[in-house]
Design brief:
About 20% of the residues have low confidence. By secondary structure, the protein is an all-alpha fold. The chain contains 5 helices and no strands.
């Protein structure tokens, strides 16, 4: 299942032409339609991108239904990892899980980059299982 499932953005020839004119990744063979190298993508900028593209619909759906979508994506990732046969599918499922995690954070007013920095980038190791 892809991130936009259940939401079909309007398609038009003008939109498709504008998309084709957008700057592409510096490597001409790279398929990304973004203005930056994916290696430079930050968690903050990706969460903002998800917010700009989907947040109005996501807030209408609410946390309980969004949580269901998120857990479905985690299940799809688990299946892809267990099968370990299709690298492209594994990467797609990781991306879907991250996108839905950003959605949950957005509709619950959580800045993921700040939360990660507070928990994992401080001088002291995090408490709990990860801190062992």
């Amino acid at each position: 299942m892809t991130r936009g499932a259940g939401v079909s953005p309007a398609r038009s020839p003008d939109r498709d032409q504008a998309r084709a004119r957008r700057p592409r990744h510096a490597n001409a063979s790279c398929p990304y339609h973004v203005d930056m190298d994916p290696r430079d993508l930050s968690l903050f900028s990706f969460q903002r991108h998800i917010s700009e593209r989907y947040e109005a619909t996501d807030r209408e759906r609410g946390t309980p239904k969004t949580w269901m979508w998120f857990t479905e994506e985690v299940g799809e990732l688990a299946r892809a990892l267990a099968r370990n046969k299709d690298r492209a599918n594994i990467e797609e499922e990781f991306a879907d899980v991250l996108a839905w995690l950003c959605t949950l954070a957005n509709i619950n007013d959580v800045d993921l980059a700040a939360a990660v920095a507070r928990k994992y980038l401080g001088e002291k190791p995090p408490q709990g299982v990860k801190g062992l």
